[in-house]
Design a protein that fits this description.
By secondary structure, the chain is of the alpha/beta class. Helices cover 39% and strands 12% of the residues. The chain binds guanosine-5'-diphosphate.
């Protein structure tokens, strides 16, 4: 079987190599005689000239062409971030994504790599299908807490839009890694149908039959939430070090949603982590990227520093490690990329986050064009006449627009068709879908959203809409520090400036904890945690930034 697969791969490689040779040969046969007719003197040293011309054929100004992507060696394991042990056929994107990325991204630390391999082993040893897992389920079913459980678990509830769900899963995963818990993802809302398995030879999806049957309805009011149990003194009356199994429940629900209370947010502090460590099962709900909050507990800080010597790369690495489009979504991504984006020398992505009921906004359109032109991401257009060019125009830019509406795309496309650009660059404009309304539980809707997030992450420069997790995921996966379009004070205004360069590619934690209930005082997380700043798009939120920011 393996030999057959290798032969198939070798055939594919041979076909590509033959095609490249044929194209280059045809090119040289056409160009070389022409050079002789024109005289080498006019064109400089022949070898250099041919090298340059060939490079020009094969390469855009700053990246790899379609042919190069199939023939150049690329780092398919992303610097060791990915495990080499998966079957390629089960998930094409896992090992092919590097081929589509011009921006290779940041390198993971060797500490992170070894921690991931150890965590994969934990997921296998304790995950669904093992005797340990069955025992742990039994204990949960009978509400029994165990003194020193062999394995501990965290179930991440999946709800809200795809960006929220991805950030929630990434946050729960980092918490699982820091606390040696097995991560299990609630498969509802298509979470079981969009991604490949990130852990080899096991599953990250919570299997059917979970004893807490109504866990997806857990909310701020759930009596078993950590916050409510603290408030009602069900737990927390004994110091963490002295806690016995009888004093902790078999499970706790951790409510870290946007509406989390001060008691819920005690989760982030050291003493509470000491208590939570004794609870075998946690169920977590968040629609937030809680990662900056995890830096609050001293117990995690040293580990986090070792895992992420570059603090602005947490989601970049975790996202690239965890979220691989399944083969269906990868087909959407690669067909679209190859058809509309691959040939351009420069790709710009614009995420226009609008809501179904929102009317089309000329102000937002102006914000998009002013931002992209002022920041020199796209050329200005001439209102009359044609550009004066010293050489034939060869530069091409592809603009990828994602939005629920098509109106912004239509207008930008017409603008670049009906007017010449001041630089002579040709701009092609593309939008994969316009779904009009956000839908929940619709597979084809979610596959498009996931494909579009991924396509945005493959661009060379990205413009996002403030407060949107859809854009946060794209920027993190792409390793792109985006230009963020600020929220206007009201709908009839174009913000000035229309956008600004974000300080890092990390997602913003929009509802960060601000109250230390043990000390009974408000605190500013940016003053406590190094490398955390206020978000440019949401002054009340915080985000991780690089060490030199
Ligand atoms: P957020 O609400 O902006 O933080 O982003 P989310 O991804 O969490 O939720 C928005 C949801 O609306 C997406 O997951 C999609 O279902 C849908 N949506 C919003 N914008 C787009 C878009 O540009 N393209 C597609 N296909 N869907 C979108």
């Amino acid at each position: 079987m393996a030999a057959k697969k290798m032969k198939k791969q070798a055939d594919v490689d041979r076909r590509w190599s033959w095609m490249v040779s044929a194209v280059l040969a045809a090119f040289l046969m056409t160009v070389a005689p022409l050079a002789v007719v024109l005289g080498w003197r006019n064109v400089g040293a022949p070898a250099v000239w041919i090298d340059t011309a060939v490079a020009g054929l094969r390469q855009g100004s700053n990246g790899l062409s379609f042919l190069d992507r199939r023939t150049t060696r690329y780092d398919r394991l992303l610097g060791g971030l990915l495990n080499d042990g998966f079957d390629f056929e089960s998930c094409h994107s896992r090992y092919q994504s590097a081929m589509y990325r011009r921006n290779a991204g940041r390198r993971p630390s060797s500490y992170l790599i070894s921690k991931l391999r150890r965590h994969e082993a934990l997921q296998r040893r304790c995950g669904p299908g093992t005797a340990v897992y069955s025992n742990a389920l039994e204990q949960l079913k009978f509400g029994k807490s165990v003194a020193l459980p062999e394995c501990r678990y965290i179930v991440s509830i999946s709800y809200r839009g795809l960006g929220n769900r991805i950030l929630a899963a990434a946050s729960a995963f980092l918490y699982a890694v820091l606390t040696d818990r097995v991560l299990l993802i609630d498969p509802s809302n298509e979470m079981g149908q969009l991604f490949c398995e990130p852990f080899p030879n096991t599953t990250w999806l919570l299997p059917p039959g979970f004893p807490l049957t109504d866990y997806t309805n857990f909310s701020i009011d759930t009596a078993e939430s950590y916050g409510n149990m603290l408030k009602n003194k069900v737990i927390g009356t004994t110091a963490a070090a002295d806690v016995s199994p009888a004093q902790v429940p078999a499970f706790a629900y951790v409510h870290l949603d946007h509406d989390a209370s001060i008691h819920d947010k005690c989760f982030y502090w050291d003493e509470d982590q000491g208590l939570l460590r004794h609870i075998q099962w946690l169920v977590m709900r968040t629609d937030q990227y809680i990662v900056p909050g995890l830096f609050l507990a001293h117990a995690f800080q040293e580990e986090l520093d070792l895992l992420f010597p570059e603090p602005d790369t947490v989601f970049h690495h975790l996202g690239r490690y965890l979220f691989h489009p399944n083969n269906h979504v990868w087909g959407l991504v690669t067909r679209y990329y190859d058809a509309y984006l691959a040939a351009a020398q420069h790709r710009v992505g614009i995420q226009v986050r609008v809501f179904g009921a929102q009317p089309n906004s000329p102000e937002l359109l102006e914000q998009i064009t002013t931002c992209t032109q002022k920041e020199k991401l796209l050329p200005e257009v001439l209102t009359s006449g044609e550009p004066i060019l010293s050489a034939p125009s060869v530069k091409t830019k592809a603009l990828l627009v994602t939005s629920l509406k098509s109106w912004y795309y239509e207008n930008i496309k017409s603008m670049y068709w009906e007017h010449a650009t001041a630089t002579g660059e040709a701009v092609s404009v593309h939008q994969p879908s316009h779904e009009e309304f956000q839908r929940f539980g619709a597979k084809s809707h979610d596959t498009k959203a996931w494909a579009e997030i991924y396509l945005l992450s493959l661009t060379d420069a990205l413009v996002t809409t403030a407060w949107s997790t859809f854009g946060y995921v794209a920027q993190g996966l792409g390793g792109l520090r985006p230009w963020v379009m600020y929220k206007p004070a009201n709908d009839t205004q174009v913000p000035d400036p229309p956008c600004g360069r974000d300080v890092s590619m990390e997602p913003c934690f929009l509802k960060a904890p601000g109250y230390d209930s043990r000390l009974n005082r408000w605190v500013d997380i940016t003053k406590i945690v190094p490398h955390v700043q206020r978000c440019g798009d949401a002054g009340w939120g915080v985000k991780l930034v690089g060490r030199n920011e």
